Amino acid sequence: MASPSSDEVSASTLQLPWFVAGSQALGIGCVVLVGIWMGHYRGGFSWNRDELEFNVHPLCMILGMVFLYGDAIMVYRIFRQESKKCIKIVHAVIHLGALLITIIGFVAVFHFHDAKNIPNLYSLHSWLGLTTVVMFGLQWIIGFLIFLYPGGLAALRAWYLPLHTFFGLAIFTLAIASSLTGMTEKLLFSLNKSYKDMPVEAMLANSLGLLLVAFSVVVGYIVTRPEWKRPSQAEEEALSMHFHRITRGDDEDD
Amino acid sequence: MASPSSDEVSASTLQLPWFVAGSQALGIGCVVLVGIWMGHYRGGFSWNRDELEFNVHPLCMILGMVFLYGDAIMVYRIFRQESKKCIKIVHAVIHLGALLITIIGFVAVFHFHDAKNIPNLYSLHSWLGLTTVVMFGLQWIIGFLIFLYPGGLAALRAWYLPLHTFFGLAIFTLAIASSLTGMTEKLLFSLNKSYKDMPVEAMLANSLGLLLVAFSVVVGYIVTRPEWKRPSQAEEEALSMHFHRITRGDDEDD
Q: So what's the pLDDT on residue A151?
C-alpha cells in the first residue's frame, strides 16, 4: 500500500481522539464488568489463600494484561507532540505497571490452587496464560535493553523495532484469548449446569467477553492504521531542526 | 516506518518460502491433531444427530475458519508473480470453501444440541463463534461486491482495501480465540475432573491450542511484514508495461 498523503493524514488525525475515547470507554467497561462479576456475583476479594483470593486473578489480568497493556501500546499514537524519548519512558512505565499487576494476579491463582490442592498449569487456559506472561516479560526486558538502556546500537534498534511492534500486538491478542478461555473455565466451574439457563451473571460475563474483543479490535486498529503512525525519527529530527531554526529567527539558508 | 528499500525486499523475500512452509506444517498439524482428538479419543464422526455428529464441529471449524482461512489470506504473498485478478479469484474461492465448511460445522453443533435438548447460543464460546462467522460472511459478501463484481469504483476499492485487510486479520484472530474457548468447553465437558490428571487426551488438546496460536502468529507475520507486501497496482502496471515492451522488442522510446 502506498504511504498516505499529508492531506489524508491530517483529515484522519481528526478522527483519532474519537477512537481513543472509544477505546477508553471499552477498556474501563471491561475493568468495571470484571469487578462487578468477581466483587458482586463471586463474593468479593481477599488475600487469605481462599476462594475470594481467586477473584483477584481475573481482576488483575484484565486490569494489567488487557487495559494497561492496551493503553501502553497506544501512547505513541495518543501523544503525538511529545518527544519520542519521553513517550518511550511512558510506554515502558505503563508496561511495567501492567507486568507487576499481572504478577500479583498470577500469585493469587497459585495461592488459591495450593490452598485447595488443585494442580497448577494443567489446563489450556494456564498454558496460554503462562506463554503470554513469559513472552510479555521477555519482550519488556529485551525492549528495555535495546531501546532505553544507554548505548544501544541504532542498527540493532532499527532491526528490532518491527519485531517488537509485531510481537507487542501478538502478545496483547494472546492475552485477550487467554482471558476468554479463563472466563469459559470460571463460568463452567462456578455456574456449572445453570450456565445454560442464562442467569444474569452469565449474560454479564458473556458481555464482558464481547467487550474484551471490541477493546482489542479498536486498540489494534489505532496502532496499525498507517495514517496514525508517528512521523519517522528522520522526519521528526528534520521538523525539530526546522522549529529550532524558526525560534532562533535564522534564515532558511544558514 | 519508512518503506523498505529494494535490497531489503529481495533479501527478505528469500526467507518467505521458509515461513510459508512453516505455516503449512503448523496448519496441517492443527487439522491432524483435531482429527486425532475427535476421531480417536472422542469416538469418531457421524451425521446422525448424536454425540459423534458433534465431533464434526471442531474438525470443520479448524479446517475451515483456521487452516483454509489462514491460507486464503496468504495467497497474495505466496503467488507474487501471478496477476492480481487471478489471485483475487483464488482468494475468494478458498474463502468460499472455508465458509461452506464452517457452515457444515455450525449445522453439526445445532443438530447435536437439538438432539440432546441442549439450548443453543448460551455460552461465551457460542457468542464469539457466531460473531466470527457473521463477520466472515459479511466480509466475504462486501469483498465480492467491491473487488470482484464488475463495475466497482476504483475510489471505493482504495477506501475499502485497508478496512478489508484489517478486518480480515481481526476475524482470523477471533476464529482462533473462539476455537480456544470451544476447546476449553469440550475438555471440561468430556474429561471433567480427570482433566487435572493430565491424561494423553488433555496433553494433545492443550498442544493443539498452542499450535493454533503458533499458526496464527506465523500467518499474521507473513501477511503484515512490509517487505513481503506485493508491489502496488501502479508499480505492477509499470512492470507489466515494461515487460510487454521488452517482449515486443520495441525501443524504450516508443
A: 81
- Note the pLDDT tens digit of each residue in A105-132: 999 999 999 999 999 999 999 999 999 9
Region A138-157: mean pLDDT is 93
State whether residue B118 is helix, strand or coil: coil
Contact between B62 and B212 (Cβ < 8 Å): yes
Position A245 in a domain: no
ipTM: 0.91
Q: Is A206 near chain B, with CB under 8 Å?
A: yes
* A59, burial (CB in 10 Å: exposed 0-12, middle 13-18, buried 19+): buried
pLDDT tens figures, B44-101: 999 999 999 999 999 999 999 999 999 999 999 999 889 999 999 999 999 999 999 9
Handedness of CA A206, A212, A215, A218 (dihedral sign): negative
Between A244 and B18, residue with greater pLDDT: B18
User: Nine-digit cell at A240?
Assistant: 525539530
The domain containing residue A24 runs over which residues? 15-234
Residues of A in contact with B232 (CB under 8 A): 1-2
On whether any CB of chain B is under 8 Å from the CB of A148, the answer is no
- Determine, yes or no, domain membership for A5: no
**Chain B from 234 to 253: CB within 8 A of any A CB:** 234
Q: Domain holding B88: CATH number?
A: 1.20.120.1770
Q: Does A162 touch chain B (CB under 8 A)?
A: yes
Domain count, chain A: 1
Alpha-carbon span B213 to A128, nearest angstrom: 9
Q: What is the per-residue pLDDT across B122-180, written as a single tens digit (0 to 9) for each?
A: 999 999 999 999 999 999 999 999 999 988 789 999 999 999 999 999 999 999 999 99
Query: Looking at the domain assignment, is residue B212 inside a domain?
Result: yes
Which residue's entry shows cell 492496551?
A70
Q: Are the beta carbons of A206 and B162 separated by less than 8 Å?
A: no
Q: Mutate which of B37, B123, B135 to disrupt the A interface (most A C-beta within 10 Å)?
A: B123
- Tell me whether residue A250 is in a domain: no
